[in-house]
Amino acid sequence: MLTLFFACKKSESFSEIPYLEFTKYELKDSVIDALGNSSDLYKFYLYFTDGNGDIGLSKNDTIHPYEFNLFVNYFEIHQDSLILIDLTSPYHIRIPNLTPTGQNKSLKGDIVWDVVFFPQDTINRKSDTIKFEFQLFDRALNKSDWVSSSLIILN
Q: What is the pLDDT of residues 85-120, one digit of tens each?
């Protein structure tokens, strides 16, 4: 009887286009290395859904366009304008294959991204305010809308 209850449980359905939502960020730690450079550890929280569960890449998915599946843009405020900064080492992320087993492939969950931010890595950084933008791709190359973090004021 208990198995029948779970088998008949209505499953959630979501669009096959990934949905992404920025939830929050936290400054977890600040450190100074032996050369006197400071860095900050941030945690970013993103909520996602995907109707057919094709989120994530396998270890063999390495050829374009499957190098990354969560794209991250980095912005700084300069003269009251938000400017996209072209980083030599982008913050893009590879999420591993999350496809569930079983008949219902719908996925929902949270992505927690830990990033060590080295302000000195940006060219001519003269801003104390930054922002990140995120876009999630599934294996069918459907993409979520871009979502933005709130503004982050650096110490």
A: 988 888 899 999 998 888 888 999 999 998 887 655
Strands 147-148 and 152-153 turn out to be unpaired
Q: Residue 102: which domain range?
A: 14-153
DSSP, res 121: G
Asked whether residue 9 is assigned to any structural domain, the reply reads no
**Structurally, how many domains does the chain consist of?**
1
Give domain status of residue 124, yes or no.
yes
Pairing mode of beta strands 129-136, 152-153: antiparallel
Domain containing 29 — which CATH number? Answer: 2.60.40
The one-letter code for the residue type at 12 is E
C-alpha span between 130 and 87 (Å, rounded): 13
pTM, two decimal places: 0.84
Say how many residues make up the chain: 155
